[in-house]
Specification:
Structural class: alpha/beta
CATH topology of the largest domain: Rossmann fold
Largest sheet: 6 strands, parallel
Number of domains: 2
CATH class of the largest domain: Alpha Beta
Number of helices: 9
């Protein structure tokens, strides 16, 4: 058996943070890189028949195995993989360790010539958009709002003040149930009587649910994933101004990864004006 390493989590998030503490993506494979890099590469090679399904095992972070189990018959967690006595010769490729070899880092390969469109959009977009194993995921039957609140220990300038999200919740929760994604928000959800979402699979199920009125999210790997697969409008809070939605840069949310079906609106200030605009748009829907 040979192994394809799609993700690692040697580092864990520190308390109050749901990202690796030092930003080392070879030790903690960030979701944004996986969503627009590793997973799209995997799908491209899968569709071209490069993987020997009988003799290859995909290795992924446990919470993200569902990103691949619909396409690959052999998928194990990185935790389980580390317990095996695997030789270097058995490893087909280690994406986190060689992330600069991902196709999206090479625009001459990733983009259709003369455009900012993914070059295999026609061939790969169905699996990019729908290639998720969502069996057993939550499926609310009434309209709701999904919200992503992230806290990064290694990049605090990208963290919005929790009071901003408190104002959003106060303005929306009487109109819609709210589901919050992002570790460290358990107490916030409990105090506000809203729903904490623990599993990434449930997040994907929520943003693909026809009853999702809106996704409200920070500039994070969660929005990178949403840009590839969401079926709802996205309100993107980007006070760090790191996104480039109209560009050709996949990791910055560029056009080449826009497979989602709604509209995306960026906000570059997490202030009262932004808060009121988002609340107004949401409760009027």
């Amino acid at each position: 058996m040979r192994y394809l390493i799609l993700g690692k989590d040697d580092l864990k998030g520190i308390p109050g943070s749901d990202s690796a503490k030092d930003g080392d993506i070879n030790r903690y494979w960030e979701l944004g890189w996986e969503s627009v890099g590793g997973r799209i590469d995997f799908i491209s090679f899968y569709n071209q028949g490069f993987w020997d399904q009988d003799n290859m095992t995909a290795v992924a972070i446990e919470d993200r195995m569902f990103l691949y189990t619909k396409m690959c018959k052999n998928v194990i967690s990185y935790t389980e993989f580390k317990k095996l006595n695997v030789s270097r010769e058995q490893i087909i490729f280690d994406i986190p360790a060689n992330h600069m070899s991902c196709c999206f880092t090479k625009k001459s390969i990733f983009l259709k010539p003369g455009t900012i469109e993914y070059y295999r959009k026609k061939e790969d977009q169905e699996l990019i958009f729908n290639g998720f194993d969502l069996d057993g995921a939550i499926e609310p039957e009434e309209p709701f709002v999904t919200m992503c609140i992230r806290r990064r220990g290694w990049c605090p300038d990208r963290n919005s003040d929790i009071s901003f999200f408190q104002r959003l919740v106060d303005g929306i929760k009487d109109h819609y149930p709210i589901y919050v994604v992002g570790k460290g928000n358990e107490q916030f959800c409990e105090e506000n009587g809203i729903n904490f979402v623990e599993k990434l699979k449930d997040y994907v199920s929520l943003i693909k649910n026809k009853n999702c009125a809106r996704l409200i999210t920070q500039a994070t790997g969660l929005v990178a994933l949403a840009l590839t697969c969401a079926e709802t409008d996205i309100e993107l809070i980007d006070q760090s101004k790191c996104s480039r939605l109209d560009s050709s840069d996949a990791i910055l949310g560029g056009k080449c990864i826009h497979f989602f079906k709604g509209e995306v609106t960026p906000y570059f200030y997490a202030d009262d004006k932004t808060c009121q605009e988002i609340i107004s748009k949401t409760i009027k829907k």
